[in-house]
Amino acid sequence: MTNLQIEQFSARSDNFGVLIHDPETNLTASIDAPEEQPILDALKRRGWKLTHILTTHHHNDHVEANLALKKRFGVEIIGPEDEKSQIPGIDRTLSHGEHFQFGSFDIEVISTPGHTNGEISFHIPSAKVLFAGDTLFSLGCGRLLEGTPATMFKSLQKLVALPGDTQVYCGHEYSESNARFALTIDPDNSALKERAREITALRAAGQPTLPSTILREMATNPFLRWHDPAIRRNLKLENATDEAVFAEIRKRKDHF
Ligand code: ZN
Ligand code: FE
To answer: Which of 17, 73, 199, 251 could form a disulfide with 50 if both were Cys (CB 3.0 to 4.6 A apart)?
Structure first.
């Protein structure tokens, strides 16, 4: 069993680009395609040739470089069945629960709608890694541009069911502003306070705050802590459903 190699870099203003590489078969996939030049630079840095693009959702900041990279490398573009008409150059579509082979690695598709109606996340169990697109961020979750709180709540429930030591990669570097909001919801959470200090230090040093892990997000991310008694007390929602607690936190973030 070889190791999956991962290269994370920044693109556009606050997007992450991520390349994954299987040294056994020499396949390289870009998780989304936010911007051509940073992806080309990353490929050059590692000496990899792009063979695939794995698309999480249709927003322009995730698909803008699809056609340019397809023209340059002849890559296969794989993305969500439910958004196929909106994803430039898509070759192959996937739905929830489907698996596909990326070299030596089995990739599981998890349907995670809410930010968009067809968004998917990519999970590689043997590498313990999740690519969550704009569904889950560190200390945050995607804005509900197409789905409802109920839809996003169900999507996040699927992600917290993954093994705790799964590394989480996300579409954007939003951790610093997410931390400011999270502290208003969960001010006495010492794990959150520690994470917020770490985020400030990393950003001051020009470093990324990701990847995170499922376990760490469950301990610190208010959008995954619908069950937490202190948060429920703060929100005066002691007896509400988990979904209602999530919906209230999402609403407050929208107006933060
Ligand atoms: Zn998006
Ligand atoms: Fe985005």
So the answer is: 73
Please tell me the distance from the alpha carbon of residue 34 to that of residue 248, in angstroms, as a whole number.
31
Residues 6+ apart with CB under 8 A from 255: none
User: 218 lies in which domain range?
Assistant: 177-254
> Do 212 and 128 sit in the same domain of this protein?
no
Q: CA 27 to CA 237: how far, in whole Å?
A: 49
Residues with a known catalytic role: 57, 59, 61-62, 115, 134, 172
* Shortest-distance ligand to the CA of residue 145: 1
Q: How many domains does the chain have?
A: 2
CATH (domain of 116): 3.60.15.10
Q: What is the pTM of this model?
A: 0.98
Distance 146 CA to ligand 2 centre (A): 13
Which residues, by Cβ under 5 Å, contact ligand 2, an ion? 61, 134, 171
The tens digit of pLDDT for each residue in 121-133 reads 999 999 999 999 9
Q: How far is the CA of 219 from the centre of ligand 2 (A)?
A: 24
- In tens, the pLDDT along 51-100 reads 999 999 999 999 999 999 999 999 999 999 999 999 999 999 999 999 99
Which ligand minimizes its atom distance to the CA of 174? 2
Residues 62 and 188 in one domain: no
Cα pseudo-dihedral 87, 89, 91, 96, rounded to 10: -10
> Do 115 and 133 belong together in one domain?
yes
